[in-house]
Amino acid sequence: MTFDPSLDTAPATPLDTAVDAARQRYVDDRPVSAAWSDRAQRVQPGGNTRSVLYFDPFPFRVERAEGRYLWDVDGHRYVDLLGNYTAGLLGHSPQPVLDAARIALESGWSLGSVHTNEVRLAELLVDRFESIQQIRFTNSGTEANLMALAVALHHTGRGKIVVFRNGYHGGVITFGDASSPVNVPHDWLLCDYNDLGSVDAAFDEHGDDVAAVLVEPMQGSGGCVPATTPFLTGLRNLCDRHGALLIFDEVMTSRFSPGGAQQLLGITPDVTTLGKYLAGGLTFGAFGGRADVMRHFDPTSGGTLGHAGTFNNNVASMAAGVAALTEVLTPEVLADTHARGDRLRTRLNETFTAAGVPMCATGTGSLMNVHGTTGPVVTADDLSDSDDRWKALLFFRLLEAGFYIARRGFIALSIEITDDDIDDVVAVVREMAAEMAATS
Q1: Is pTM beyond 0.90 here?
Q2: pLDDT tens digits, residue range 130-165?
Q3: Domain covering 95-328 in this structure, CATH number
Q4: Which CATH architecture has domain 14-89+331-439?
């Protein structure tokens, strides 16, 4: 497979030339991945079953993983800076998690019954998150958000949900400038992130029918744009004033501290949704909150809501979650990873500024996104002039140097990433930025 550059007849810029050359080197070095991509395209639309994993011209295909490394079928090794889009916080196959899951499976799986580890994991999570008095498990963050919205509608007897442009709460709850065609058909009120006035206006018009506000403390898929504290505090106040529930989607941001972003912010939502890394990298989701809200799932307290899911309490995820929270993810480990991410983002921005290239990195702690604009980035509107070619060049140059990030510029550090790795990444970026600055 060879890369076919754009048929655009406009003269190529030095940036165009650099991107095309980096992409072609990628293709030339990965013939086995290319063959697998052709094979996959025949039986899977897009050649995959998870759309975010696709990138042009084709994704490399992983053969194995260990620690902080991935190896592809062409024999290339990468330091994994993507961390499975935050689910891989613990790195690949951490031994305590692997041991716990193996022991659980040796005792039988697909039990069709309750068991002890689901109680242990629930207790650990209730202890960690101030907003969660009771909790239920799901198989993903998407399911967790669906159930959180269901209980909010039932609890309030209302029909509208405030969400935000460029928010992402799972494959069927995703927003750009509008609701996605694949979204579940709720009555959405789409507002602007970090713009409390737009939410205030929505409440002024629909306040008596707003069941909940669903918000990420930092928009992850939307470009790692953190919410301002006044914005989130204002949402808390609006919900209190109008009798709506505030739902924090902490599927990504719960890694910021043992008690999540809400602990750092000092803002307590009514319901919290979780997912990703909390089962050590195995399939996992959860939603929990105030006892008076969660009791709707408790038939002993008059609750009438059902919550199905064959694998909600699967033995591997429950055991892995207990091991992750008791043996691996100490407060010190989370704090170190958070600080390492802050250092990387700061150094990237210093490098971009020093070279005079139009790029910036946004985010919080171990989660960040590189953009093709100088910033600052407070809302998605600030990304309207972002040049994707800069992200493409960064992506392929880092792959060439043995570092894997998302094609869209997203980075999610695992606890396995070292300070030396950070130094090496910055060195690659500095070299790339200097070369491009010299051609402009």
Answers
A1: yes
A2: 999 999 999 999 999 999 999 999 999 999 999 999
A3: 3.40.640.10
A4: Alpha-Beta Complex (3.90)
